[in-house]
Amino acid sequence: MIYEFINMNGYGLYVWSSFIFTLVCFISLYTVIKLQLVKEQKKFKTKYFDLTKDVSETVRKQETYKEILAFTNISKI
Amino acid sequence: MQPFIKLSKMSFKAQKYIFILFIIVFSIGVIEALVLSPEDYKQSDSVRIMYVHVPSAWTSVGIFSLIAILSLGNLVFKNKYFLLIAKSLAPSGLVFNIIALVTGSIWGRPTWGTWWAWDARITSMLILCIFYILYILSWRILENKTSVNKVTSLISILGLINLPIIKFSVEWWNTLHQPASITLSGSSIHSSMLVPLFIMTAAFVLFSILIFLMKYNTELIKIKNKGLDRI
Predict the structure, then answer these.
(1) Helix axis angle, B145-172 to B120-141, nearest 10°
(2) Cα dist from B121 to B42, B43, B61, B68, whole Å
(3) What's the rounded Cα separation, in Å, for the pair B226 and B231?
(4) Which of B57, B163, B189, B202 is a good FRET partner for B93, with 20 to 30 A between their CA atoms?
(5) How far is Cα A22 from Cα B33, in angstroms, rounded to an integer?
(6) B107 contacts in A (CB within 8 Å)?
(7) Which tens digit of pLDDT belongs to each residue from B4-41?
(8) DSSP label at A62?
(9) How far apart are CA B34 and CA B173, in angstroms?
(10) What is the ipTM of this complex?
């Protein structure tokens, strides 16, 4: 029964390779995008915590920088 | 530290839920596609390739339509977020396009006896893939903000012309590719095959939303990083 399921009436190679290729593409895309996101988050954390308390407080009061200092939130979409 | 933790938790909550939902829907879809759905009387088990080929083609075309509409919206309303959203949609669109081309080629071998044919539908999908590549490359290569806006908008609007060609190619020309089985007036596919097809389509759409959210977040953080450099 397992052999029949894998063999798929002789079309197993085509069916399985299609599904595996799709899965590999999904995993690769997810990994690449996730790595990019983590990289940018790390950069942001480093830059944000490098700001002195005074500078951070001053720029927070300025409208232009408020958005920059606000942490990413998907509600902005 | 406290607000950062709170806000980043909020930001990733939606992604987490979509990811979980995608895993559930995709798992159900795969079981339906590979185990529960019947084999075709003519194509036998090779018909199961349809469950990855068709949803990826639909999603890829749908995403490019969105990109083109957003680019048009940017030209009309001059809203930078439209372009940012379009840019974030492109990677998943390209990957779905590649999946559609490759799985189509794999399906073509047992069905038509060839991996590739310069058929109208297949060629127009390949052209869409080129448009996707050009769109993504122009974001990477061009540095001037004005020119990148113009070039990417031009590519997506030109690519928009290709979309009706993809859709109607099977009717306009005599092609190897079969005509549409699902139209607005109905479907020639039996419900036992239609259900897994729609479940897989839902899974693919969820995956593209997940990738879009992650990419969009990345782009926003990039902008903030540039802003922090100016402080």
Answers:
(1) 170
(2) 22, 20, 12, 20
(3) 9
(4) B189
(5) 14
(6) 14, 18
(7) 444 445 556 788 899 999 999 999 999 999 999 888 88
(8) S
(9) 33
(10) 0.89
> Which of A21, A59, A67 has its CB closest to that of B102?
A21
Mean pLDDT for B118-137 is 94
Tell me the C-alpha distance between A16 and A14, whole Å.
6
> Quick one: pLDDT band at residue B78, thresholds 50, 70, 90?
confident
B85-117 pLDDT tens trace: 999 999 999 999 999 999 999 999 998 898 988
Q: Which of A11, A33, A55 sits opposite B110 (nearest CB)?
A: A11
Inter-helix orientation angle B145-172/B80-112, to 10°: 30
pLDDT confidence of residue B127: 95
Per-residue pLDDT for B123 more than 70? yes
Q: Are A71 and B4 in contact (CB under 8 A)?
A: yes
- What does the alpha-carbon distance between residue B88 and residue B90 come to, in Å, rounded to a whole number? 6
**At a CB cut-off of 8 Å and minimum separation 6, what does B209 contact?**
B18
Rounded mean pLDDT of A3-31?
A: 93
Q: Do B227 and A65 touch (CB under 8 A)?
A: yes
Look at residue B175 and tell me whether its pLDDT is greater than 80: no
Cβ atoms of B197 and B189 within 8 Å: the answer is yes
The minimum CA-CA distance between A27 and chain B, rounded to whole Å, is 11
DSSP B172-227: HS--SSPPPSEETTEESS-HHHHHHHHHHHHHHHHHHHHHHHHHHHHHHHHHHHHH
H helix count then E strand count, chain A: 4, 0
The whole model's pTM is what?
0.87
